[in-house]
């Protein structure tokens, strides 16, 4: 199994696009930080925003990281069908479940490395371009946590989101064998969730059980810091651990469905 995961990783990392997406993430992190500096500087050019204020939120760049992960997850299965290499993959001494699991693991490894890159580039860019601060300094409004801990908490919450995005995108990719459609659906979930949630918020007031719908779970980053006002005023509020549990359960269900679908997939026309 380790050999299979290693082979899949080598295939992914040999692609120029895999490296380009990481480089774009770094460049955009510095670019966004520079833009923030230019819009918050005083008349004499001095940066008014402090480094930890931006670093703690990972420079708000997690959406771009999630976008890149969706693209990787969409291509890692669909490309095997579009290039006809799925037949050669299946004649190897591995089961279909093992092959799909290895691709799933490789997507998660790529996500973790991307998260580390975002974490470090946010820390460096914020301290280079804004008013530098010690990352061990406490951040106001975050329960006495320092900047490193706050940023790590948001990175961990975003990794849970990525787990769900990867599972959904791989499911679509395995089901319809279309990279473009898998990317489209993944992006729809990624960027359309806020619109869907705004409609669901109206319905949740009447049907409380709908607060367990998967789109509500996508708000998990908003619960990293306990929000007393939201607890009292929002009927669909779930705390961090409830949302984390929901994401894990939904991901497991979709993963099992994906495995069943992939086992029955006819590859004769690929």
From TrEMBL:
GO cellular component terms attached to this protein's record: plasma membrane
Gene Ontology molecular function: any one: ABC-type transporter activity
Pfam families in the record: ABC2_membrane_2 (PF12679)
Membrane-crossing residue ranges in chain numbering: 19-36, 56-78, 99-124, 144-168, 180-204, 240-258
UniProt keywords, alphabetically: Membrane, Transmembrane, Transmembrane helix
Alphabetical list of PANTHER family matching this protein: INTEGRAL MEMBRANE PROTEIN-RELATED, MEMBRANE PROTEIN
Protein name in the entry: ABC transporter permease
Organism: Enterococcus silesiacus
């Amino acid at each position: 199994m380790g050999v299979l995961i290693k082979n899949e990783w080598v295939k992914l990392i040999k692609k120029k696009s895999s490296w380009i997406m990481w480089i774009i993430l770094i460049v955009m992190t510095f670019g966004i930080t520079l833009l923030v500096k230019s819009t918050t500087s005083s008349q004499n050019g001095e940066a008014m925003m402090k480094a930890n204020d931006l670093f703690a939120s990972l420079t708000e760049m997690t959406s771009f990281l999630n976008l890149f992960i969706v693209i990787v997850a969409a291509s890692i299965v669909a490309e095997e069908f579009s290039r006809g290499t799925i037949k050669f993959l299946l004649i190897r001494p591995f089961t279909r479940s093992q092959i799909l699991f290895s691709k799933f693991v490789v997507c998660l490894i790529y996500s973790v490395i991307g998260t580390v890159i975002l974490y470090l580039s946010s820390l460096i860019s914020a301290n280079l371009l804004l008013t530098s601060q010690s990352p061990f300094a406490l951040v106001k409004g975050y329960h006495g946590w320092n900047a490193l801990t706050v940023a790590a908490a948001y990175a961990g919450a975003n990794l849970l989101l990525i787990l769900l995005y990867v599972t959904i995108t791989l499911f679509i990719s395995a089901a319809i064998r279309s990279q473009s459609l898998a990317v489209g659906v993944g992006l729809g979930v990624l960027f359309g969730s806020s619109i869907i949630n705004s409609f669901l918020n109206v319905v949740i007031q009447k049907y409380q059980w709908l607060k367990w719908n998967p789109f509500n779970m996508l708000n998990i980053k908003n619960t990293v810091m306990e929000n007393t006002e939201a607890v009292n005023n929002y009927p669909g509020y779930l705390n961090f651990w409830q949302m984390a549990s929901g994401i894990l359960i939904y991901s497991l269900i979709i993963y099992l469905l994906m495995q069943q679908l992939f086992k029955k997939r006819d590859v004769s026309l690929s």
